[in-house]
Design goal:
CATH superfamily of the largest domain: Phosphatidylinositol (PI) phosphodiesterase
CATH architecture of the largest domain: Alpha-Beta Barrel
Number of helices: 13
Distance between the termini: 28 Å
Largest sheet: 6 strands, parallel
Oligomer: single chain
Strand order of the largest sheet: 1-11-10-9-8-7
Length: 397
């Protein structure tokens, strides 16, 4: 899919044509919500913290916005600013002179006493670990030198990790038309957002034409500026419109009625989309699966791009196993040829159906041996990758 999209982009560029926006419909289709500043963690917002990233992913966000700025010694980090009345105040941190921290101080100063600050290196590390997340940049600066330095640093980090493909899941937000060319000189990103919060007198027809010409598939607008006329102007060119920052369901509902395609939010969760007439793209789907020449019906859930199934549903197929949880050593050992019993009490299963996900903090063993298979807890239920587990249990072929 990515290759086809890039081919369309390059072909249109060579022909000098306006880029077809259908070629850029990647992250928006199943993501009407963008987690603002990486979202909410433990009730706290605007943190850009590791905990916010992980909690947002667990709640179903697959598009997250992150703020970037520099420390005093030139490290790119996930933070809104180093202003006394800005991030220091919001993040419950003491203010010292000089205001801008060096990287070491930044990394060792907890956010709101207990959350973990992130460098750009660590943000891209999380992107590599959570391979279904799109990252939307809010880089703040508008001078060419700083803008190009920021995106050059992101590019260098991805390349140093040996994973330049991470850049295909980064969506730059540009603040003016000039910034598009500045960023593109650094890397030809596949998808872009034109955010208008620094454009005090926007000419929407001109913006729509510019976005269509450059293949910018999304425009972001402060919610008080959203009108039917503005939406119609942008939609006429095939451009999706997101509003920021919305934390009230009724307000979101009103914007959807006008025709907004999505919102940036601190608090509204994907599993709450049905409250406003939308639906969470994550769904448990019962599939007929052929294993060892027999067909079984299993509950499948798409996680990190592959089908996961409840561990308990595999326990009685082929070689049966018993699951033995060792909380102290953080292992879950599958003992073959024994009857499976529930893990519900140990894992505190949640029956709300919100599909809240968390990477398991235990290692999965089979007959006492490490498997290198990493379970995901879904509402407390242990889910495992179907194909890898079928191979482990001898159910393939």
């Amino acid at each position: 899919m990515l290759g086809k999209r890039m081919t369309a982009v390059m072909l249109a560029a060579m022909l000098g044509a306006a880029l077809p926006l259908t070629a850029f419909a990647g992250w928006q289709e199943e993501n009407p919500l963008i987690a603002h500043a990486l979202g909410e963690a433990d009730g706290k917002i605007e943190t850009n913290s590791k905990e916010a990233f992980e909690e947002s992913w667990g709640s179903g966000f697959r598009a997250m916005e992150v703020d970037f700025t520099y420390t005093s010694d030139g490290a790119l980090v996930a933070r809104h600013d180093f202003e006394e009345s800005g991030s220091y105040y919001r993040l419950e941190q003491g203010v010292n002179d000089p205001l801008v921290m060096d990287q070491n101080t930044y990394k060792h100063t907890p956010i709101i006493y207990e959350q973990t600050p992130l460098t750009a290196v660590e943000v891209l590390g999380l992107m590599a670990e959570y391979s279904d997340v799109y990252l939307i940049t809010d880089t703040k600066d508008t001078d060419k030198a700083t803008v190009q330095r920021q995106f050059a640093d992101l590019k260098k980090i991805a390349e140093a990790m040996g994973q330049p493909e991470l850049l295909e899941r980064i969506v730059p937000q540009i603040y003016n038309e000039e910034m598009y060319n500045w960023v593109k000189e650094i890397y030809p990103f596949s998808e872009w957002i034109y955010t208008l919060y620094l454009n005090y007198y926007p000419n929407y027809p001109e913006i729509a034409n510019f976005c269509q010409e450059k293949g910018i598939g999304t425009v972001t607008i402060e919610y008080t500026r959203v009108t039917k006329t503005v939406l119609d102007t942008l939609h006429a060119k095939g451009i999706k419109v997101y509003a920021h920052t919305i934390n009230r369901y009724k307000q979101f509902e009103e914007l959807l009625t006008l025709g907004v395609d999505g919102i940036y939010t601190d608090r509204i969760k994907p599993y709450e989309l049905n409250w406003v007439g939308l639906s969470d793209s994550r769904k448990v789907v019962q599939k007929a699966v052929s294993l060892k020449e027999k067909e079984y019906k299993l509950d499948t859930l798409k996680i990190l791009g592959e089908d996961y199934v409840p561990l308990r549903q595999l326990a009685n197929l082929g070689n049966r196993f018993f699951a033995q949880l060792d909380s102290q050593n953080k292992t879950l050992n599958l003992v073959p040829r024994k009857m499976f019993t529930t893990l519900g009490n140990e894992l505190l299963m949640d029956y709300t159906g919100r599909l809240i996900m968390k990477k398991a903090d235990f290692r999965l063993l089979y007959d006492g041996k490490e498997t290198k298979i990493y379970p995901i807890l879904v509402d407390g239920e242990v889910y495992v990758p179907l194909n890898k587990m079928a191979t482990l249990l001898g159910l393939n072929g």
